[in-house]
TrEMBL record:
Domain of life: Bacteria
SUPFAM superfamilies reported in the protein's UniProt record: (Trans)glycosidases (SSF51445)
Alphabetical list of InterPro entries matching this protein: Class_I_gatase-like, GH, TAT_signal
Organism in which the protein naturally occurs: Pedobacter heparinus (strain ATCC 13125 / DSM 2366 / CIP 104194 / JCM 7457 / NBRC 12017 / NCIMB 9290 / NRRL B-14731 / HIM 762-3)
Database matches in Gene3D superfamilies: 3.40.50.880, Glycosidases
The protein's name: Glycoside hydrolase family 42 N-terminal domain-containing protein
Amino acid sequence: MKHTNDRRDFIKKISLTGLGLALTNGFTKTYAGTTGNTLVDRRATIVGLPQNPSVPFVPQRAASWWVTIEDLQWSQKKIVDKIKRRAAAFAEAEIDLAINYGCHIRFDFSNYFGQLHGYMANVCDELHKYNIKFMDHYSCNHVERPRGEEEFKKLHRGQRHHVLLFHDPKAAAFAQYEGHLFNDICEVDIRDGSRGYARQYQMETFCHNNPGFLDMHARYLERLFKEVPIDGIEVDDMCDYSGLTTCGCKYCRDRFKKDYGHEIPAFGEKSFWGDVKKPMLQWGNYENPAFRDWLRMKTDVIVDHVKMVKRIAGDKPLMSCCSSTGPIVLNGISLDLEKMAPYLDFFMLENVGTNVKSVDWTHMDAEALNQKDIADKRGNAPAMALSYTIYEKGGYFGWALSRFWGVANWSSTHNQRLEEDPADAMEMEDVIRPSNLWEVKHSPMKAREGKDLVEVRVVNNKLCKDNGWRDDEGQEHWTHAKTWSKKLLENNIGYRFVRYEELADAAALKKDQTPLVLDGVGCVSDAQFNAIKSYLAAGGKAWLALPFGTHDGKGFKRTVPLSDELRSTKYKNLVFIDSITRSDVLSKLIAQGNLKPVIRQIAGDKGWVARIRIYKNKPVIHLMNTALTGIPHPSIKDNSGISILADISSKIENNKLQYEIHTERIKLTDLKVSSPELAENQRNVAVFKSKKGYSTFNVDLNGIKVYAELINAV
């Protein structure tokens, strides 16, 4: 669910049809399908899915296609004409994928699916004339049900972008689709038996494990694909925003007993629920294996739901939303992108918001590269970053981050995310047009074709998150991995993540000779340990910071930590180090010669960071500013009271930089500085040999605040 920084802030603080009619361009299409309301457990029909997706198209410059409540009046001439104008404007802005944004809580619109599908079919027809793809995007497992006047007002202040057309409380008791009453398929709150409620979004939540809900969603998907020629689909919110106390329905209780052998205990039983006086995302006794199994079961049912969606979508690319993959608090809302990954085709990071804080971006580098690795392991699946903005400078900033990360860009205005739209609000295509046009003319590199220069591999082991593992100082494994990300970024050192599956694959580990960082990897499975030992025995390099292997892959404490065996074996290239969270161990490793960075800045302010990526055997150096300052709008604030980003400034004073590059790793000819901020202009950069094995070059970034790239001059 696209909520700028809401989801991330929330995580930090406490997340088959019958006869269907589709009106398309004034004509009526009738589709015959199966009838009846027989409940079908669709999980039984799921078959194996390929691990390497063959996607029919690869987006590069995506943008949100905003839908408003007025658009449900389709097919009035005014709306049809607006579709035509916008499609032409999207084409002029070089947008290649339009993603639906609006009518988001989809089953709130069950009475209007004919109009909505007719509208979207009309949109597809117009976009396809320009070879622009269209992806639908909606939340399947919620209905908006504000409880009380204050919740009603809060919903209208903060979620206008959903297109708010939810049921009156009296009508809600009878709301249904395909014979399934919404009240009957909601999650059950274990505390009091009430319907599951996501208070942060004023929504009641459907149970991913309820066969009635799965049947209803499957029937809707089949109707959607018949009535609208969409090119792909993003089914959002594949998680559980009601949190840890849902779901206590019959189906979830039966599954927990069948799959894991446990009963759900009464709420408040401390041995299971932990201290429930804390915020919900801090609940749970991770020492209890039954609680850990509860978390596993909750994500199991969501993954089964994703499998069902993919089975129906077939060769249409499927995506889901994710703003975070690393921290333990994700367990509280059952959000696990890595577990869903085998059934997804595109991968998206919900990135920055609309306010001035968004320019502080370095903490997102770890999430971006972690999700990029998830996509890479799905056969180099397309990855993109979604960035929000109100004005053009924010659109450019989001575009620049996508370029720096080497992923496709999804640009989205978010005017309706504010309580009231600004008088000077910009159209989506106008926000992103300048960046897109510059890209197409001056630097048409395809994100999927670029390969990051990797000098260090950082382990981020999902098993630590799944089991709620923390070290003796209370730090989780993701904190260690994220700190490595920040330090490597600041030192211009290329890195990637090694996740849990690769860590158990000895052959995969041996393919790469770069050092493997094992910092605070408390939970290690037997398969992972065997792969690590095989890698080390073959001469592989590793830097290990304790604790390591204190628990197994299921979270059970080991009698003797696995680090003891590694220490006693005395592998040649295994170096025991302090944790990056406790000392500047990276500087020590460089000083000791354990790491020789490929590129090193030797003059100028250190606010710029460099990332080297190889495109068709040619290196490109991407430069991004980490010392940005957001210039606030003089009057407009977001719903949390923070000023909207109006412009961007830089705290860097000396933009004349000098770099030294290791020519045994990267060979450079003379370069050119290129940036949208220089428009049509480029600056020449001479590369000269400074000492054996190294070259030096000077870069003048004056007049550039956000992003630049160094490309071959010939």
